[in-house]
Specification:
About 40% of the residues lie in helices and about 15% in strands. The protein has helices at about 20-45, 60-65, 80-100, 115-120, 135-145, 180-190, 205-215, 225-235, 250-255, 300-315, 315-325, 335-355; strands at about 70-75, 100-105, 130-135, 155-170, 195, 220-225, 240-245, 260, 285-295, 330.
Length: about 350
């Protein structure tokens, strides 16, 4: 096009004399642009955020864009159990809130240690979480001398989710109908009554051992390979009693088991007519619980966001109904400080029971 001059910017445009006039006129604008670039470099570039996005916080760049990819929740248990049920009920609700997929992965190997190690060694950005249980966090450290992670030092408690008591049940052929009668029966029995558990070091085992110590009675432990076989043995009358989960409510209602007392601080929602052990033996409380954990070093803003969405998901009416139907599980919402204190108390409590009972792995 006639009259047009192509300007090739090399240094100060010395090789293009015909550009000199235009360069002089453009110089103030160039200086203003350079000044603006220097200012942006000093304070950081402000990028417009889409609706609903988080703004930068003291947690750093990772916190400002959380979540930036799918979130993985590692469940330290097999599919179909309580922790798996909780994770899968929460996942779609949390995914909707986060705008990212929430993927549940079962990592049951090493009695939960494989899942715990994977989370503890992950990047502390909130994209890899652990559905942890009291058995993994508070009992295993007393039974496994060489765990790959320290469950207190290497894992960060984010949110308490579920707390569920156990229930002392007996075979219907046993004459005891109350805790006082059961204690008296155990004291008079010769040979001693036998009780089932889901294995050495399980909650079933350690809770019954604590009851033995508090009540001053003698019972013979018969470990089985899991809670289901232990329940079947008790229903069949192979043993006199066991500490079961509230998932045995159907066997209790049908009369195949008789409920004596629950181990929680208050009566169970699924067994409201069954008294607590604490109503007879004061201050007795043993519960199973699940919670969300992450690697140490997560930004505070990310922790709070995950915690808020987890609590919102677990307390939805439809989720609460499914939890009760799936084994009498009840939401347990506490502050982070209270959750951490509960973990410390359980570590001390279970450590004492393990030592006194001489519990050993199968």
């Amino acid at each position: 096009m006639q009259g047009a001059t192509r300007c090739v910017w090399r240094g100060a445009c010395a090789q293009a004399p015909s550009c000199e006039g235009r360069f002089d006129r453009a110089l103030p604008h160039i200086r203003a642009a350079l000044a603006m670039l220097s200012l942006l470099a000093a304070i950081g570039t402000v990028v417009p955020q889409p609706a609903g996005a988080q703004t930068p916080t003291s947690g750093g760049a990772a916190a400002s864009v959380f979540p930036s990819r799918p979130i993985r929740v590692l469940v330290a248990a097999t599919p179909g159990g309580g922790p798996d049920l909780v994770a899968r009920l929460m996942a779609p609700r949390m995914a909707e809130a986060f705008g990212q997929p929430v993927v549940v992965e079962n990592r049951a190997g090493g009695n939960g240690s494989i899942a715990a190690e994977a989370v503890a060694r992950s990047q502390p950005d909130g994209h890899v979480l652990l559905m942890g249980m009291d058995s993994l966090i508070a009992i295993n450290p007393h039974l496994y001398p060489n765990m790959p992670v320290d469950t207190v030092r290497d894992l960060l408690p984010i949110a308490s989710l579920i707390s569920n008591g156990m229930v002392l049940v007996v075979h219907p052929s046993q004459p005891a109908t109350t805790l006082a009668e059961f204690i008296e029966l155990a004291r008079r029995s010769n040979p001693p009554l036998h009780y089932a558990s889901g294995g050495n070091g399980s909650q079933h085992h350690l809770t019954m051992e604590r009851l033995k110590a508090r009540a001053g009675i003698n019972l013979v432990h018969v470990p089985y390979k899991g809670g289901a076989p232990a329940t079947a043995a008790t229903v069949a009358g192979e043993v006199a009693a066991m500490m079961s989960g509230t998932s045995t409510a159907s066997q209790i209602r049908s009369g195949r088991l008789r409920a004596i007392a629950v181990t929680s601080a208050t009566r169970s929602l699924v067994l409201p007519d069954v008294p607590t052990i604490a109503e007879t033996l004061s201050d007795f409380q043993m519960t199973q619980w699940y919670g969300l954990f992450g690697p140490v070093g997560m930004p505070e803003t990310v922790i709070n966001r995950i915690r808020a969405e987890a609590e919102a998901a677990i307390t939805l009416p439809v989720v609460r109904e499914r939890l009760l139907a799936g084994g009498g599980l009840q939401p347990w919402i506490t502050t982070r400080e209270a959750f951490e204190a509960h973990i410390r108390d359980d570590l001390e409590r279970y450590g004492k029971v393990v030592r006194e009972a001489g519990a050993r792995l199968d």
